[in-house]
Design brief:
Phosphorylase Kinase, domain 1, Transferase(Phosphotransferase), domain 1, Trypsin Inhibitor V, Chain A, 4-stranded mixed sheet, about 30% helix
Length: about 675
């Protein structure tokens, strides 16, 4: 990411691919953004999990499995999972972007829906859940906010990326539900399955039909208590006039015992479609009092939530046909421009067979009658005995009083009483335990990595300090395992830029970067690192690097005039390799056996091991001195200089009189360059 994970993620690029445009919403587990997939050039919904969840390695591993499972799910009524990844330690999901609104928006605007609309929406939701259940995935958080209503009328169930597969449920599942829609088995820590989603969908159907929830309260614990202990009332108790079939459907979906609910989403889907076919137009168009609304205007599309819903209802419902008994004759009557389809009465001697719906209804009636008969006492209390009737009423009053007292104790002083979560950050588990038990709460622990808090100390609590919770809810403590350590990679032989990139990928920082000469490591490459490769480090730790400047330059020393042994020693000490030339040369200025010349010359730069060639002197060359007696001074000088000698003149009379050489001090063979003294008369 270009920056840290905050609500200011707008304008950054996540995963090197997803350009974030705007914030769509924030929940308890993640923040959702509108983004563009720069690779495929399409809009997507980017869900970035909150950092504390991303740092939980167990959650991250489960998140990876669930995201992969959800990505296999492809259905018209399920939001598609497109990608998942991690950027700077934060997990994210990439999902299909569905422009439009949610069922939550629709209910907030309209209050309630007509059965025709509610059943059309229910059909799409249950169809999507059936596909998910067939793939081994349960949603566990079905609610109106997770039902998306697209601008073009499509209905999609979202947030499957945080669901758990059927084989990976546990008691902690209850932490992930929403209190108003959570099932009794999740609250009691029992195993959950596909029927848990059907319970939440039944609560959602109740809300669509009535405009209100079946269970409400001051806090989550009060609502949870009702889910566990109270039956969901029939919708007609809130909205008289709803068809009895709708009461039966809601009751079937919201049984406390999962075995009493529909055995599968497919079975429920068949029942929903059967009810849609069997209800009359008046029953389908009935609206609970106070349910109408103006519709929420979408500035982009200019379409209200109600408009969207009418579109999706038309898309899902199609043409409804009346279910008629098999063998019924049909009479078509035309009046006032309308065509009506009416069943012709069947003769008494040929009764029409019962429809499947009627058979189920009669079976349910028989079952209710049998249960009522079994519960009816065989001996009735005598009528007209006021003393006995009074005793019964007293008993009823006592029972109710005891029940009221028990409820008062439960919520006032017992497990349902409110308690404040104490501050426990940076405490040991033993210290935190004392404070939490003093507050009357229970707790569980969960180990997490944390770079800033020492191992064994509390990082945070859930709920946080100062939060009021029911005592039976308990507190979860996140205990630090200290910083997560990662082995340092071997950075030697890499270029400095490549080493910096490796450090950034490992979330480490570059410490001191120095330079040194090296005979083996090329210039610009890392020749040493501190700490050494393999050392465990936490994120953000500095790593010092030493970068090679290549081979060290060596200035060639001056050895001309030195004796051979001294010259060889000087070059070797400098790290250079002396080589003596095969042929020595005459040199009038250098004695024989000493260095007459060197290559390269003194002062030039070489590197260790380079060669310096030494040319030794044979001393001066022997030359025969020409006889210049009687010659003029000028001619004698020219002859001697041409032979390689130096010339000096002495005058007999203090000055030249005749200008002729009267004598010379050397004759025979002399070293080249020797000075010849002339006597000039």
């Amino acid at each position: 990411m270009n920056g840290q994970h905050t609500d200011g993620l707008v304008g950054s690029v996540v995963g090197g691919r997803y350009e974030v445009h705007s914030l769509l919403g924030t929940g308890g587990m993640a923040t959702v953004y509108l983004a563009t997939d720069t690779t495929l050039r399409r809009r997507v919904a980017l869900k970035v999990l909150h950092p504390h969840l991303s740092r939980d390695r167990n959650f991250a591993e489960r998140f990876e499995r669930e995201a992969i499972a959800a990505a296999q799910l492809s259905h018209p009524h399920v939001v598609s999972m497109l990608d998942r990844g991690e950027d700077l330690g934060v997990l994210y999901l990439v999902m299909e972007y569905v422009p439009g609104h949610t069922l939550r928006d629709l209910l907030d605007e309209q209050g309630s829906l007509a059965p025709k609309q509610a059943l059309a929406l229910l059909d799409a939701v249950v169809d999507g859940l059936a596909a998910a259940h067939a793939a081994g995935i349960i949603h566990r958080d079905v609610k109106p906010a997770n039902v998306l209503l697209a601008d073009d009328g499509r209905v999609k169930v979202g947030d499957f990326g945080l669901a758990r597969s059927l084989s990976a449920t546990s008691i902690t599942d209850s932490l992930f539900g929403t209190a108003e829609y959570i099932s009794p088995e999740m609250l009691m820590g029992r195993p959950v399955d596909a029927r848990t989603d059907l319970y939440a969908t039944g609560i959602m159907l109740f809300e669509m039909l009535t405009g209100r929830l079946p269970f409400t309260g001051e806090d989550r614990s009060h609502v949870a208590f009702q889910h566990v202990n109270d039956d969901v009332p029939p919708p007609s108790a809130v909205a008289p006039g709803l068809a009895p079939e709708l009461d039966e459907l809601v009751g079937w979906m919201t049984r406390k015992d999962p075995d009493g609910r529909p055995p599968s989403a497919l079975a429920l889907l068949g029942e929903v479609r059967d009810i849609r076919r069997s209800l009359t137009d008046a029953q389908l168009d009935y609206r609970a009092p106070g349910g109408a609304g103006k519709g929420l205007i979408d500035d982009d599309a200019g379409t209200s939530v109600l408009d969207h819903h009418d579109l999706l209802t038309e898309r899902l419902s199609g043409e409804r046909t009346e279910a008629l008994p098999r063998g019924t004759e049909v009479i078509t009557a035309v009046a006032s421009g309308h065509t009506a389809v009416m069943p012709r009465p069947v003769t008494p001697d040929a009764p029409a067979p019962l429809s499947a719906r009627e058979q189920r209804r009669q079976a349910k009636e028989a079952d209710r009658a049998a249960k009522a008969a079994a519960a009816r006492p065989t001996h009735q209390l005598g009528r007209g005995n006021p003393r006995r009737r009074g005793a019964i009423w007293v008993a009823i009053v006592v029972v109710l009083a005891v029940l009221a007292a028990a409820i008062g104790w439960f919520f006032g002083f017992g497990p349902g009483a409110l308690a404040t979560v104490p501050p426990v950050k940076n405490l040991t588990v033993a210290q935190a335990q004392a404070l939490i038990q003093q507050a009357g709460l229970g707790f569980t622990t969960h180990d997490v990595f944390d770079d800033g808090i020492s191992a064994g100390l509390i990082v945070a609590s859930a709920p946080g300090a100062g939060t009021q919770v029911r005592k039976f809810e308990g507190v979860q403590l996140m205990v630090s395992k200290g910083p997560e350590l990662f082995p340092l990679a071997d950075l030697t032989a890499k270029t400095l830029d490549a080493a910096k990139a490796s450090l950034a990928d490992a979330k480490l920082t570059l410490g001191t970067a120095s330079e040194a000469y090296s005979d083996t490591v090329p210039a610009g490459a890392v020749m040493a690192q501190d700490p050494a490769a393999g050392t465990p480090l936490k994120h953000g730790s500095p790593v010092a690097l030493t970068v090679s400047k290549g081979r060290q330059p060596i200035p060639v020393p001056k050895i001309v005039g030195m004796k051979q042994a001294d010259a060889v020693a000087a070059l070797t000490a400098a790290g250079l390799k002396p080589v003596v030339a095969d042929a020595p040369v005459f040199d009038r200025n250098v004695p024989a056996g000493s260095v007459s010349a060197q290559s390269p010359a003194a002062g030039q730069n070489l590197v260790k091991g380079d060669t310096v060639t030494i040319t030794l002197s044979k001393g001066p060359r022997m030359v025969h001195v020409p006889d210049v007696f009687g010659k003029t001074e000028q001619d004698a000088i020219q002859i001697l200089q041409a032979a390689g000698f130096a010339v000096k003149s002495n005058y007999t009379y203090g000055r030249p009189v005749f200008g002729l050489v009267a004598g010379q001090d050397k004759t025979g063979d002399q070293p080249e360059g020797t000075t010849i003294t002339l006597t000039v008369a």
